[in-house]
Amino acid sequence: TEIGAMAHALSRHADEVYKTLPDDRSRTVAEKLFRALTDTSTDPRGLRRPTRLDALCAVTSATEAEVRTVIEAFRQPGASFLTPPMGTRLQADSVVDISHESLMRVWERLKGWAEAEARSARMYGRLAETAELQAAGQAGLWRDPDLQVALDWRDKEQPNEAWAQRYHAGFAQAMRFLQASVALRDEEVRGQKARESAEKAEQER
Predict the structure, then answer these.
(1) Secondary-structure percent of the chain, ordered helix, strand, coil, rounded to 5
(2) Cis omega (within 30 of 0) for bond into 84
(3) Intra-chain end-to-end CA distance of the chain, in Å
(4) Of 50, 91, 103, 122, which residue is most buried, by most CB within 10 angstroms?
(5) Sheet bearing 95-98, strands edge to edge
(6) 19 falls in which pLDDT band (50, 70, 90)?
(7) Would you say 101 and 91 are in contact if contact means Cβ atoms under 8 Å apart?
């Protein structure tokens, strides 16, 4: 169909712009930027989430220059995937937005990113809620496999306070909860090893 062909062309065009970014760092910032501008919590197909430039820098853990590089690429003439349009100077308080909601429906790469963002937000939400319960004495620390899943998530996503704030306020508490869970796991491993070597010594007597 004509609409299908147009959607495919739009997706391919967005991919081409993505591939012209200068390096891996820019591509990582682009992913984080588009994830920040897409809200899938209210509508699974994605809604636009206009965000100030300075807030985008905070959420993506990127410098203003790094974020600008991505925005300029995606708003150049012939691309115009992001607003404000080319020619408008970007300031710290400029509101950046995805220019067409349809981009979220047809750009396959963005759909994948939005799903990853939703999974990441769910993981963080569960962690933050458990940390609150644990602080109130209503839940224990995490053990494997939950703990390892959370650690893998943290290493991969490298969440920060500005990002977390969008989903649940208790970021510092959640990170402390993770640390405490790791400390408990390490302690149990040490205890286990000590018991095993004591048993071994006993047998060798």
Answers:
(1) 65, 5, 30
(2) yes
(3) 81
(4) 103
(5) 51-52, 95-98, 82-83
(6) very high
(7) no
Whole-structure pTM value: 0.90
Mean pLDDT, the chain, integer: 94
Structural contact between residues 194 and 87, judged by C-beta atoms closer than 8 angstroms: no
Burial of 85 (0-12, 13-18, 19+ CB in 10 A): exposed
Angle at 171 between CA 62 and CA 134, to 5 degrees: 160
Predicted pLDDT at 31: 97
Q: What proportion of the chain, given as a percentage, has pLDDT over 70?
A: 100
- By the 8 A CB rule, do 38 and 48 touch? yes
- pLDDT given for residue 204 in this prediction: 87
Burial class (CB in 10 A: 0-12, 13-18, 19+), 173: middle
pLDDT of residue 12: 94
Which position has the token pair 């410098």?
A: 63
Q: In 3-state terms, what secondary structure has residue 42?
A: coil
